[in-house]
Amino acid sequence: MVLEQGAEGILHWMRRNVADLIAVxxxxxxxxxSLAVGFGGIIESxxxxxxxxxxxxxxxxxxxxxxxxxxxxxxxxxxxxxxxGGYGEYTRGTGRGTRVFFYTNIGSGIxxxxxIDGQCYDGLGYGAAYFGHTYIPDWTAAQPGVRRxxxxxxxxxxxxxxxxxxxxxxxxxxxxxxCGGRCEALRCPMLGKAGQQGDAFALAEIERIADSLAxxxxxxxxxxxxxxxxxxxxxxNMGDVLLDPVRRMVAERVFISAVDRYRIVQCAFxxxxxxxxxxxxxxxxxxx
Length: 288
Description:
The chain folds into 2 domains: about 5-80 and about 275-285, ATPase, nucleotide binding domain (Nucleotidyltransferase, domain 5, 2-Layer Sandwich), CATH 3.30.420; about 95-265, Nucleotidyltransferase, domain 5. The mean pLDDT is about 95. It is of the alpha/beta class. It has 10 helices and 12 strands. The chain has helices at about 5-25, 65-70, 80-90, 150-155, 155-165, 175-180, 190-195, 200-225, 240-255, 275-285; strands at about 35-40, 40-45, 50, 60-65, 75-80, 100-105, 115, 120, 135, 145-150, 230, 265. A 5-stranded mixed sheet has the order 8-7-6-11-12, sandwiched between helices.
């Protein structure tokens, strides 16, 4: 319901609930020095201004850092949610000890975070490494040569849109049993569970998703040669039933310079990567 209300509804929820969280922390004897916010959209890094959100309405030109500081009287850091997740993984998770690290979340949308020598690469100050907005072949198109964004093919919302299309999941698939025959109730975790149980359709669909992800990731690895690629977000919670075919296909496509010099892993912090990374990032950058 809050998401349907767009930016206005979300900020109203934040004003009420963040104040309560601050009060609870202080009542327990903790001090609250700053606020750390991971936002799913494009941010002007120097000012904390939101340019836009691809997923949620109402955010255009919102001065989000100013809003948080005015609302709660504390300094605030605003960063892209995938950058937050990537920073957390780099400093305390799967990226520890690496020089070049790439993180992507595969959830309702798909983002990217490239870290080189401890610094999140920020392009011209509006973010960079927007992996989900690079283009790959569209296997669902009736005509050959059609291209779509990685996010439009592989995000959780994209996967669920396909699964919920009448007739897309064939009769006899475990998926229909899991949703009680109501395709509109299908969710990504069901696809992973059906694949783990050997359902032929689920495995074929996961293979198609892996194929698309591998095309994009092999390009990232060829371009930047990260030592580690960490994948987070809800779709990644499928685990190795998804990641194993991704690893196999990337190995077939990546340029020879990177062969055996990278690893692809599921992120360590799971669904907590964004809040963990936001706090770590704010602690470092506000202290400096």
